[in-house]
Amino acid sequence: MPKGAGTYPVLNEEWPTLGAQTSSPPLLPVKGKTPPAVKSNLKLAKDAPVFVPRGLPPQLEALSIEERGEKRTPALEFWSHHNHIYQWQRKGDQGDTYQCSQIAERQTSLSNLKMNSCFRCGKSRPISADLIVQSITCAICGLCSDCAPASTKEDVPQMKHIILPTPSEVEVVLYHHECPDGTAAAFAAWKLLKKKNVTFYGAKRGDQPPRWVAGKIVAIFDFCYSLEETKFLLEKCRGLLIMDHHKSGMDELKHLSPNIYFDMERSGARLAWDYFHPNQAPPLFLKYIEDRDLWKWSMADSKAFGAYLDTVPCNYEEYDTFCDDSVMRGAVEKGRAILSYIEYNVSRSTRRGYLTDFLGYKVMVLNCTHLMNEIGNELALQPACDFALVWQYDHHSDKIIVSMRSSNMKVDLSEIARQFGGGGHTKAAAFRWSGTIQQLLKQVKKTK
């Protein structure tokens, strides 16, 4: 045991960040006992793991896990709540004025995600660096005092402790495959991490996560796996961050872990950009992609650029060319011509749509081999229908791809899609069906 370990060491306040690559702080001996308030809040489950970050002072590296964890070192406590490290630091001369200050880099990362409300109940909460021990509220993981588990007062949660990675720590990026928004999210990660040995892997909801991610630090953008598959990731990955904006995923996963973040106001690409490049404005092409993906159409030439984007491969390195202004001007100019062709074909195709009943709703249905999104949106404008359903047969999967679009708020399409194993947004969702379209349309609405 190192010198002074049996006394009550405290950190020198000139060394505020635990993981900082600076000289180690001195451990100052302080007489007295651990305050009861601190002791009652720092009980550990018997076999709970203690996560130790990189760059610990040599004095702490020399301590065994038992001495760091179960026996504790009073006045300098490390407690792993979810994936977060609390640095208990004595304030002033009174023994009951301990406070909790978080590792600065992780707090900054979460601040950049704009996590300013409780991830469980949605109640607004301030992001603060210091929290008084008697009324703990986690300013990093997003739990307000009402939703904080009993573990903050009694026991460590019975769940694996997993890193919420900072941008530079990410080792694997999983992104929504063959989707401009997902590919642009991968571009945002690649722009920062391209000189590192990072693996990029395109995937879709409904797939199984690759098993080789076990033990790695993983970031997922613009989609999420099912509840069971996400639990697998939380159990097997060394670190995990999931950022998505699809309502169906949020409804299923929002209470599962603070490592899962949803924001309906930003696209997957914008979420990724703000995470990896918090102090930089996104490039123009990424703004166009967000404008289309959220179906806002608030920017001039969004439709023209989107029309051109659909003619190039969904490749994050290819998207890097759009950072050149001259390339962007050419893309928009070509897109305007393509857009005229699209509008003509959409107008012709929608004439073949027909009105029928589906799950108790009036639905415009059409077999559509191309331009599914555009044709679906045009059909949804018909005043007699609640939403549009367009479909096509996929020979590779031997399934029918079903896309739904709505122009109103009469029905939550993400809920319908989830019934069939798919997902999406309130007014735009999709799923795959293994039967015939006639069998699908005969399905009965499920009751909760």
Can you lay out the helices and strands and say which pair or pack?
Layout: H1 36-41, H2 58-61, H3 65-68, E1 78-81, E2 84-89, E3 99-102, H4 104-112, E4 130-132, E5 172-176, H5 180-193, E6 199-203, E7 217-221, H6 227-236, E8 239-244, H7 247-253, E9 260-262, H8 268-276, H9 284-293, H10 302-309, H11 316-319, H12 325-349, E10 354-358, E11 361-367, H13 372-379, E12 387-394, E13 399-405, H14 413-419, E14 423-424, E15 428-433, H15 437-441
Explain this structure to me?
With 448 residues, the protein is α/β, with parallel strands linked by helices. The chain has 3 domains: 76-105 and 119-141, no CATH class; 172-342, inorganic pyrophosphatase (n-terminal core) (Alpha-Beta Complex), CATH 3.90.1640; 352-442, Diaminopimelate Epimerase, Chain A, domain 1 (Roll). The chain has helices at residues 36-41, 58-61, 65-68, 104-112, 180-193, 227-236, 247-253, 268-276, 284-293, 302-309, 316-319, 325-349, 372-379, 413-419, 437-441, and strands spanning 78-81, 84-89, 99-102, 130-132, 172-176, 199-203, 217-221, 239-244, 260-262, 354-358, 361-367, 387-394, 399-405, 423-424, 428-433. The longest helix is centred in the last third of the chain and has 25 residues, at 325-349. It starts with 35 loop residues before the first helix and ends in a 7-residue tail after the last helix. The model is unreliable at 1-116, 125-142 and 148-161 (pLDDT under 50).
Entry keywords:
448 residues, alpha/beta, inorganic pyrophosphatase (n-terminal core), Diaminopimelate Epimerase, Chain A, domain 1, 3 domains, six-stranded mixed beta sheet, five-stranded parallel beta sheet, 15 helices, DHH_sf, nucleic acid binding, hydrolase, DHHA1_dom
